[in-house]
Protein 1
Amino acid sequence: MRPLLYYNLSFTFCLLFCYFYFQYVDSHQEEYVQTLRDWVAVESDSSDVLRRPDCHRMMDMTAEKLQAMGGKVELVDIGVQELPDGKTVALPKVVTAQFGSDPNKQTVCVYGHVDVQPAKLEDGWATEPYNLTDINGHLYGRGASDNKAPVLAWIHTVEAYQALSIDLPVNVKFIIEGMEETGSNGLDAMIVAQKDTFFSDVDYIIISDCGWLSRRPALTYGTRGNCYFFAEVEGPKQDLHSGVYGGTVIEPMTDLIGILDTLISPSGKILIPGIREAVAPLSDEEWKMYQDIEFDIESFKSKIGVSQLMYSNKVDLLAHRWRYPTVTIHGIEGAFSGPGSKTVIPAKVIAKFSIRQVPNMDPAVVKKQVTDYLYSVFAKRKSPNKLKVTMIIGAKPWLADTKHPLYEAGKAAVKRVFDVEPDLIREGGTIPIAKTFEDVTGKSIIMMPIGGFDDGLHSQNEKMSRYNYIEGTKLFIAYLHEVAHLKKD
Amino acid sequence: MRPLLYYNLSFTFCLLFCYFYFQYVDSHQEEYVQTLRDWVAVESDSSDVLRRPDCHRMMDMTAEKLQAMGGKVELVDIGVQELPDGKTVALPKVVTAQFGSDPNKQTVCVYGHVDVQPAKLEDGWATEPYNLTDINGHLYGRGASDNKAPVLAWIHTVEAYQALSIDLPVNVKFIIEGMEETGSNGLDAMIVAQKDTFFSDVDYIIISDCGWLSRRPALTYGTRGNCYFFAEVEGPKQDLHSGVYGGTVIEPMTDLIGILDTLISPSGKILIPGIREAVAPLSDEEWKMYQDIEFDIESFKSKIGVSQLMYSNKVDLLAHRWRYPTVTIHGIEGAFSGPGSKTVIPAKVIAKFSIRQVPNMDPAVVKKQVTDYLYSVFAKRKSPNKLKVTMIIGAKPWLADTKHPLYEAGKAAVKRVFDVEPDLIREGGTIPIAKTFEDVTGKSIIMMPIGGFDDGLHSQNEKMSRYNYIEGTKLFIAYLHEVAHLKKD
């Protein structure tokens, strides 16, 4: 527990603090929204190499913004990405920036990304995905919540201190990448390379690439990892007419469907041997913690529009969302996927599926388990087609200690801005870089989300609410002040 | 058997016939190829409603061509197509044309279509699919073989008689449609409506919408039908992030894969109850006939690029290609189908699969068998997602008597042009209109292919060889002459 004096001083500070900073943020709201609009307008879809010029432009815009604020900015070349056809394409550079270098202050490093998931109007968006559209205070646009607004909120935080001519209470560094949605290709090596330079004076790493669980603000202390697989079945040398050849050819699509159907049972049980056995058991303490979290199953169901979930009680549901693995089949490349009908036997089909990783799973082991299993299942079919299983992403899970001072500071900042205790939650998704930061730098990490629980990340109609964007900026301002009080490691 | 005199007269005729007509055809080869190039340039993909203007233009071009030749041409309005969103779009009009109306002559009606399957360069075409490209005498282009060149070969046939100022030996009618690749939507009703008008004086119907089995010319006496299904599984109201929601949601894609995997076994056995029982047994006579057909399994395998087929002997292979049903899973709409990775749980996925129909299957019964089966398999999964199975095409198989005079005339024409006996073959694909013509008009039908065995219908790099196009035109010229000798029904 903290001494009472700390809270009294903090409370006194808050009165002044709130007045200056929060008023400043409120009065600059429209400017913040306009910047977000400019950023969302850049289709920085890192999964589509044809969009790579937009990704490069997004990194340049980010660097220019930080440069204009007087930061010490670098655009770090992290090499090239190898494409399936053997060609290469340049990776978006990583932006690093530094504001302040006072050795007597704490140094935080804010991580974020400015690349986005794919989005097309015809996927079912109500508005143009790259034209930020304000509907009742919700700002709709691809990447608004994941992760452009949170990155901007951190930038606005530094701007606010600067505008009010008040020294930053901590040194602030930024590391902003453009490949997060596609596995943060190249970033790990860059972090390793700069371990003793850029990261040498960093005390804490802050990540705001996640969201709240409910309307209650939250701090996130764990994420699942992700092993993403391609399973390719190749048969005839080209697509065939299903009338002319159907019945004579062993069809790759039938083989692929057959092996995909052995991954997971209808009740959600992973059928790949060894996966479930590796999962850390659920402790009583954990069970109790889940039990206390504010989470309304009915509103969760209604939000996603389903009548029934995989589990009907809160603990099972949260546990399977955060601390158990799962298999998702995302789709199949190479088969007929358009509207209407086509009488084709696809010659080569590639299933995309992924397995979320949790402690104590190891991606290297999972890769072997999945590959061995699928090859053995496929062998039983006695098909002449060729199966190739590859793991293209292998991201580890991450778990923090919620009693660390960094989290205590987070709780205090949330209390200050929102006047509630935050929920302590985990994230079902993956922020693989958290694990890398931890492993390489050995520094403590906190995840401090400002995105809403209903922001629709990775799906149609992604949005960031004005409320979360603006109050989130205030939270970051308050948090830097809290971190300044922490004892240097 | 025909009287010897017939063959003697025919032989005498051939000497003159060959000289005039065949020389004319040979000397107009470049003109024919240019017309085919103009036709292939129109992207008349009937499956894509956005391409509908091209389909309309293709029908207009066809009508104009026939009109310019002095035919009595009509563009018949066959109504509208209903789209999934409830809107409607005009169907391509059907072109009918008539050359000659001498009641003392036989009247043949040539059926063809000028719409095509989808094609994109990036599907793996070596040349632009809508730019007819001559490589070593092979004319590559979407729709070249299926069915634009055969339709043009029939048009060139009439042109040749006209150019040489020789009366057509039979009256020739044309019925050319623009929706064949999408189930000949609207054509059945049009044929029924014109049964006692356009079709009243038709004696025989000729279809050249198929191909040879080997390098040996062939006559086709049977086709499989096709029941094309959509199986839609709908879950959440929108796509979800697989990290954030994976493990809590019963995923539509998992359900869909699960039910698709129950359609057919790895060894090609259809698992839907009742389907196999409906198939007419293979007779000894049929077995013997298949045994005699020229068919080289090794070259078939090497052509499609597989090391092993579903069956290793000729009779099983031909039988399963022509006279047994099969299931093909064409693809899935709504799932992630692009290159790269996307961590999405698709909210609504629609599988496209089809079952080839053979005697004595009945599409109405098959519809019920498939629907009942899939609903029962799905029910066992106890999924809250919604399954909707619809049959969007229900085309019956067709079978002709190879001893009919129409086929004898065909054999004679093949002998005349190619100096070989044709193979008598069936077609694994579907030309549903054959069954309709038979059922509605009661007239005899012959299928007289000119396309090569390796034309790549419905797949990448479709082509029509110059040889088949030009010699095929000669075959049609010879055939009209043979038909003129048939006794009127």
Protein 2
Amino acid sequence: MKNFTSVTDVEDPIALIKKAALCKKSPFENDHLGKHKTLGLIFFNPSLRTRLSTQRAAYNLGMNVIVMNIDKDSWKLEFEDGQIMNSDKAEHVKEAVAVMSQYCDLLGVRTFPGLVNRDEDYSEFILNQFIKYSSVPIISLESATLHPLQSLADMLTIDELKIVKPKIVLTWAPHIRALPQAVSNSFVEWCKASQADITVTCPEGFELSPEFMEGVKLEHNQKEAFKGADIIYAKNWSSFNDYGKIGQNLDHWIVDQEKMNLTNQAKFMHCLPVRRNLVVSDEVLDSSIVIEEANNRTYAAQAVLQEFLTSMK
Amino acid sequence: MKNFTSVTDVEDPIALIKKAALCKKSPFENDHLGKHKTLGLIFFNPSLRTRLSTQRAAYNLGMNVIVMNIDKDSWKLEFEDGQIMNSDKAEHVKEAVAVMSQYCDLLGVRTFPGLVNRDEDYSEFILNQFIKYSSVPIISLESATLHPLQSLADMLTIDELKIVKPKIVLTWAPHIRALPQAVSNSFVEWCKASQADITVTCPEGFELSPEFMEGVKLEHNQKEAFKGADIIYAKNWSSFNDYGKIGQNLDHWIVDQEKMNLTNQAKFMHCLPVRRNLVVSDEVLDSSIVIEEANNRTYAAQAVLQEFLTSMK
Amino acid sequence: MKNFTSVTDVEDPIALIKKAALCKKSPFENDHLGKHKTLGLIFFNPSLRTRLSTQRAAYNLGMNVIVMNIDKDSWKLEFEDGQIMNSDKAEHVKEAVAVMSQYCDLLGVRTFPGLVNRDEDYSEFILNQFIKYSSVPIISLESATLHPLQSLADMLTIDELKIVKPKIVLTWAPHIRALPQAVSNSFVEWCKASQADITVTCPEGFELSPEFMEGVKLEHNQKEAFKGADIIYAKNWSSFNDYGKIGQNLDHWIVDQEKMNLTNQAKFMHCLPVRRNLVVSDEVLDSSIVIEEANNRTYAAQAVLQEFLTSMK
């Protein structure tokens, strides 16, 4: 594994999920692996779960951690080549990443999409600049279009339910702000790699990018989609087609108990943070598995770190 | 001890003060206790001493530490139940705390009062939400109405003076901003638990809450109060009665050498940060024990952490 | 060594450069030295390289690290004595530093100049307040007028080139903002202490302070200066004479390939961050040694930390 930015970076996704389960069972078994190794966590955007769980994972492996909020701790970076750098951007990503990767053995980076220029976002411009200029492996802490650490934790969470071939439904949910498609893209990608039975339900016009929808069942009728589901995974995302558009007058897409009653006693999942009574009702959230799902973030990150550390030995 | 938020959480306060003294004597004796344990420090408000001393205490015990400034590193939290979360608050405290407490073995939290709604502040609404939703013990890094780590350090500092039954005077002092009553409430609470001889002196209308004033001598004449004192503990606080009000035209409440001359060669204490020549004169501060008092913050925190770590074994 | 703020603090600069080279060769050989020791890094100003490389250096030695951004994590400090502190500054440096130095075994501090009051900047007022009130050694992470960790890394970088008595040229370069003279002053200071052959080239009126120019060759014709150079070290700085003034209409001072062609196949150095195509052309920067120079920051910091740790045993 050269970097961890997508399920396609992973040789054997099923094996990685199993490794995450082992990390959860014996979190400190490999606490020698990280000796003298430093993980750098670079945030262009806010973070709670990723920030904390990845640090915890690194500590479980005996690593040191350096956290840095770009802009707040440092200064703005220039990403375009060939510029005369006379604006507010004090350093080019080329130097910044080359340098940071010398001080760290692994680099994690979080970089959200602008949700304005679809081609730029979907080219993973910033993440790829990091990969290009880093001398060490890059771990995505959520990029413009994918969030693989979340998905790996999601797969572990589903695995733990021990349901044979569960019917998984990814449902669009309402929100007041334009959110990335990253979590949803990534969830679909990992479901497909795990040969899971995955259906996407969303309002018309809110389908994910064709590359992610390919091979996935699509059902615009949310209640129809919920029937017989074993897992409801809710997430808002802004439109891919009408790029970055927020859903209007779609508050009835909330996941509530009435809809959950249509399912096969499905477990409710969400990556968090979640807006209560907008995305999901209190009732549904309070009997969900989102807290354990978040707990699994530590072991997803630990499995990935361990994979890299082992290959360094 | 389930949590550490008040002297009432502590089974034997005197024993805890002794434990802090032992930590100071041999800071690294228990450096194995924190192995594989992570302390999370969550700040809703700025901090210098608490931030640094608690980290140092954790390191002395071999713990890992994760520090997080809510709002700056993450996003705003919703604390009210039953809300439709369509404002600027992206996550409910219920999920945030449940999740953070999975990544950490102990959680410290600093949350100041709003000084607008007295009932809300004195209900310790935010702190109690943390306690309610956390799966691990909560350590107060100063809450709306109490600052027990400061008080424990204060008690250690007083103990080190080896004065038999010292006369302790807590004096109100001037300030330009509305400050919490937390440090003062807490100091009184710990003095009472230690059966100390404690007098509060303040302008009329600046008495602490009745629950804290109960059993404490009150003297509105500052100079009268100072007579024969062995320890002068100065602190500004805004009014409890006229909630959050700042003292006007009360600059003569400054602690200066003339007033100190009325005492029994009293030692001057303050929790810091302190505004020179407003709260206390340069002369008095420069011959005070505030630096050693701040030093004791490390060992107060260490004693509390050690107490929790020991009970986890 | 009592503190590390200038080459003049170092008994044997050449030996320290050699020590940095040894740290690079065997980074973990002294990982026991930092046991139970905590490094505090205090930033009044942003930082990328210094922040990360110094943390890494401390980890290589087995130290713990506490990082604090003053103002963001804490509050503003008062530096003047005798003030009635009724402004926005909540704590005097006297208490803040005395206290911080109790929680840490070594304190690093970054504090930039105001570039308004030359006497104040060149008195190193803030840094000296830290030295005055700290009970532990102070390491400059760049002060108003010097940046010795950068210079030590620069000397190591030059040493690694194994050029006998290289001709070193420090060239002024264009910029859009008023920058400190610190890196340039410090570079000259270390070159002189190493008996290097150092020439400064800059527009008239941009000479460094007389104390640094003394014993250094000065050449206002940039192309003339470049002839036969083995090392071109570029840096912008604002005027010392017309204090803080930015150079106007001086964009032709950029270092480009045409000018580099005048040299003896000189290596290009810069402390970073660098503004491409303003300070230096893409072409020159992309074939430079700035990345390795930045890498050496870790080993410069490690040599200094090791020096202090050894003397504590």
